What does this fold into?
Amino acid sequence: PRAFAITLGAGVPITQAINAVAFASDNAYLIGKIVAMRTGIERGDSLLRSAENTGIFTPVILQMIAVGEETGRVDVMMRDVADFYDREVEYDIANLSAVIEPILTVVIGAMVLVLALGVFLPMWDLTQMARQR
It folds into this structure.
């Protein structure tokens, strides 16, 4: 959404902006869907209808496109969507680190236990052999 917002904000026509965004991706599936969206707009469909027909956008993005079309500020709405998803990714990363930390603690503890047993088990075997004599 951010690249689309920037190109629209710079005054690039919507079909050229969509084309630029499509080929900025290396995902063939997304490129095909976005090019189909451009084709729909060239046929006279609205941006919202073309975006809905692709099936790749979340309801949040579709709602923001609708608001942007009504207000004539699609670029601002797409920038807001990009900011929203940036915040969501930051939140998910913060939560991921909170989940991974206890798991790593347990894994490191298990490794220390294995190393300690590797050192102490032979020593215990030696003491048992010494007691048997």
Q: What stands out?
A: The chain is about 85% helix and 0% strand.
